[in-house]
Amino acid sequence: MAQVREYKCPSCGGTLEFSSTIQKMKCSYCGTELEVEALEALNAQMQSERPDEMNWGEEENQNGSWQEGEQEEMRVYVCNSCGGELMTDSTTAATSCPYCGNPVVLTDRVGGTLRPDYVIPFKLDKEAAKAAYKKHLQGKILLPRMFHDENHIDEIKGVYVPYWIFNADADATIRYNGTKKAVWDSGDFVYTRTSVYSIFREGSIRFEHVPVDGSSKIADDLLESIEPFDFSEAVDFRMAYLSGYLADRYDISVKDSIDRANSRIKRSTEDCFESTVSGYQDLQIARSNVRLHNGSYQYALYPVWLLNTTWRGQNFIFAMNGQTGRMVGDLPADTKKLTFWQLGMTAVFSVIAFLIVRLLF
Fold first, then answer.
1. Residue 174: which residues within 8 A CB-CB, separation 6 or more?
2. Domain spans in the chain, listed from the N-terminal domain onward
3. In a 3-state reduction of DSSP, which class is residue 224?
4. pLDDT (tens digit, 9 = 90+) per residue, 33-84?
5. Spacing of C-alpha 287 from chain mean position
6. CB neighbours of residue 132 within 10 Å
7. Whether pTM exceeds 0.85
8. CA–CA separation, 19 vs 117, rounded Å?
């Protein structure tokens, strides 16, 4: 006896059966109807789908050796509070940690770390960081009134943050489920017809300079919020760019950064492909397959201004992109203002809902 193949509904996963009445495959659970030819094409496509292949070569960075004499000009400062290790030139005096504000102690020369390939020099100075901070506080209606006057800046430090920069070609095959709905009246009844479509997108895209920060001491979401950095202004690393600034030593290896790089590449690929699909009320990814090749990476230093502030015993950290001036940072909320605002918004939505109901009936 021949084995009967079971076909699954692409909408709900139920069993599809051939209906002699409509001469189509029909799902007994959700009512989805499919032409036999369309179902065969869909199954063929699904059988060809593979898992992601986002592997990177194991080769070492080829430009990671310090040049003769460079390490003589560098020193390492270690924070006894948070453990941060900071590099700077030999002329920098004792300083404080840009992450927690505690004093740091000079240890020894730089050693046992890769030499950066590139650096994006600071374009904005400390005064620009102060101005951006003040502008950041403007227009925040939920900010406590006294925060402007009482919050003071404890420290402003220009820090070169370590980044792993990934490059790769991505081939992708993505299948979407798109939904279209039609609504019409007939007598006393309102009918809704929902049609579900399978949409395929396949192509290639090149990624260059995908950044993943190599420091565990700064929150990833804080650093991602001040992106993007313009890599076209990156230059070959030279010791002179560190003069007057600190440079954080990476404590997250390139190997441990790959998962975040893959996640960013996959998400960007899916967003790019999705932008080519239109005409559907709802669009969901049913299956996504991304394959990488020609992968490479570099080690770079990006400029960041870090501002440590204190208000009523709480510490607040703000970060500014030292190239573009983009400023981010968490702010406290006035509980009374927040409650009043929530009540106000609830009242507004209630009035809108009342007016809509009144207009309809």
1. 200, 201, 202, 269, 270, 273, 274, 285, 287, 288, 289
2. 1-48, 71-174+197-330, 337-361
3. helix
4. 777 777 777 776 666 666 777 777 654 444 566 565 566 666 676 776 666 6
5. 21
6. 19
7. no
8. 65
Helices (H), the chain: 36-47, 126-137, 147-150, 220-225, 254-274, 335-360
- Inter-CA distances, 136 with 46, 148, 226, 230, 320, Å: 49, 11, 13, 22, 10
Report the C-alpha gap between 187 and 10 in whole angstroms: 33
Whats the size of the chain, residue-wise?
Answer: 361
Reported in sequence order, the residue ranges of the chain that DSSP labels E, i.e. its strands, are 7-8, 15-19, 24-27, 33-34, 74-79, 85-89, 104-106, 118-119, 152-186, 189-213, 235-236, 246-248, 282-311, 314-321, 327-329
Contact between residue 40 and residue 56 where contact means Cβ atoms under 8 Å apart: no
Alpha-helix runs per DSSP H in 83-125: none
Phi and psi (nearest 5°) for 30? -110, -5
Cis amide prior to 98 (ω within 30 degrees): no
Tokens of 210: 């995908």
Round to whole Å and give the CA distance between 105 and 78: 5
Which positions of the chain have pLDDT values less than 70? Answer: 1-6, 11, 13, 44-50, 57-75, 77, 80-84, 87-96, 99-113, 139-154, 311-313, 331-361
The two tokens of residue 203 are 């192509």
